[in-house]
Design goal:
Helix content: 40-55%
Oligomer: single chain
Largest sheet: 7 strands, parallel
CATH topology of the largest domain: Rossmann fold
Shape: globular
Number of strands: 11
Strand order of the largest sheet: 4-3-2-1-5-6-7
Bound molecules: nicotinamide-adenine-dinucleotide, magnesium ion
Number of helices: 16
Distance between the termini: 57 Å
Strand content: 15-25%
Radius of gyration: 20 Å
């Protein structure tokens, strides 16, 4: 890299945020200007001491009330969610890493895109909910959205092997999660502990549950549609339990170009932060001197019905993404607090999606209303 890049990490205390800071520790030329966290304020303060950013945001003022941030000489402490939008748009920030989980990450991602930043996007929910508005906004503001999600980073890298009109299809890989080989009966008795034990990836709680239901792959199909301007008929999903091939692009001549590396988010995060440069970094390397098997299977839509929801939303667009995302966020929370079972998550999402009042060209307020409606429906679903 030729010059220092100033970055703001929204959600620095999370799984992606911590991996990003690990990248910053070992890659020269990345300067942390701002970080944020919501609940784990001890960690946020510790990160601030180590990286001396200009700003930290404690996103939930109530949680932060009474927390002692003293001893941060060079850092201004800001309180409340609206300050996230401010640090995302700071003139001195070059790159915003959007790593807040869920729709809570939408306003600050929006602010970063609106102010024309390079946005390293981990928060896939923003594209699921408002892909049409965010991509329009980016083309107006000149913002660049770079994928952080490992599959989309792989696709982004593989796409460099040909021209857009030479792409036949995008193949997203999925580990299949902890229940890849479970039958319907076993799926009906899944516990929280089982669902939180992902076989290949170490991630935050929400995306870990999404991976277990394969809702994560559904959200990634929608994410791919918006990131790469492809239709759902050009997107396929393949189960690849080893999580070494992060995704593939098939070109019209039949060539499949893949990106491979061990399952660790530091590499896709680093690629987005140093892009277009590739530099040495802390990510583990694949050891091809020891034997390994790479397997690929078609997904089972009967045992993992979430996938179809992703393709439906990619096909219909409009308000469907906001409804699916909100129903899923509420359902995951309900599962984690033992209010519904594992299989209820996707059943409820399907029912709520099918009931909703479809709006083909929603505005942001209409999307927020659709989100609210879906969460209310989820509460009703639980007591019904
Ligand atoms: P996480 O739960 O580990 O961290 C979430 C971060 O968001 C934390 O810093 C938390 O403090 C902050 N946060 C939570 N609620 C907030 C709120 N209401 N307001 C402001 N901040 C809030 O999640 P994660 O696994 O790091 O995932 C972050 C995003 O990256 C998600 O959108 C996820 O889908 C995506 N992603 C994660 C991985 C992974 O390996 N973890 C891989 C691909 C994509
Ligand atoms: Mg992914």
């Amino acid at each position: 890299m030729t010059r220092t890049k100033n970055i703001a990490i929204l959600g620095s205390t999370g799984s992606i945020g911590q991996s990003a800071l690990e990248v910053v520790r070992s890659v020269p030329g990345l300067n942390v200007v701002a970080i944020s966290g919501c609940n784990n304020l001890e960690l946020l303060a510790k990160q601030a001491k180590e990286f001396s950013p200009q700003y930290i945001v404690a996103a939930d003022s109530e949680v932060a009330a009474g927390f002692d941030f003293s001893g941060l000489a060079d850092t201004e402490v800001l309180y409340g969610a609206s300050e996230l939008d401010r640090i995302a748009a700071l003139p001195e920030v070059d790159i915003v890493l959007a790593a807040i989980v869920g729709i809570a990450g939408l306003p600050s991602t929006w602010a970063a895109v609106e102010s024309g930043k390079t946005v390293a996007l981990a928060n896939k929910e923003t594209l699921v909910v408002a892909g049409h508005l965010i991509t329009d906004l980016a083309s107006q503001s000149g913002a660049t959205i770079l994928p952080v999600d490992s599959e989309h980073s792989a696709v982004f890298q593989a796409l460099k092997s040909g021209k857009d009109h030479e792409v036949a299809r995008i193949v997203l890989t999925a580990s299949g999660g902890p229940f890849r080989e479970f039958n319907q009966e076993q799926l009906s008795t899944v516990t929280i502990e089982q669902a939180l034990a992902h076989p290949t990836w170490d991630m935050g709680q929400k995306i870990t549950i999404d991976s277990a239901t394969m809702m994560n792959k559904a959200l990634e199909v929608i994410e791919a549609k918006w990131l790469f301007s492809v239709g759902p008929q050009q997107i396929d999903v393949v189960i690849h339990p080893q999580s070494m091939v992060h995704s593939l692009v098939e070109f019209v001549d039949g060539s499949l170009v893949a990106q491979m590396s061990p399952p660790d988010m530091m590499l896709p995060i680093q690629y987005a932060l140093t892009y277009p440069a590739r530099v040495a970094g802390p990510s583990p390397k694949l050891d091809l001197t020891s034997a390994m098997n790479l397997e690929f299977f078609p997904p089972d839509l009967e045992r993992f019905p979430a996938l179809e929801l992703g393709f439906d939303v990619a096909r219909f667009g409009g308000s469907t993404g906001a409804v699916l995302n909100a129903a899923n966020e509420a359902a995951v929370e309900a599962f984690l607090t033992q209010k519904i079972s594992y299989t209820d998550i996707v059943t409820a999402c399907r029912e709520i999606l099918d009931q909703h009042n479809f709006e083909p060209h929603p505005t942001l307020p209409q999307l927020i209303a659709a989100d609210r409606w879906a969460r209310q429906e989820m509460s009703k679903w639980m007591v019904a």
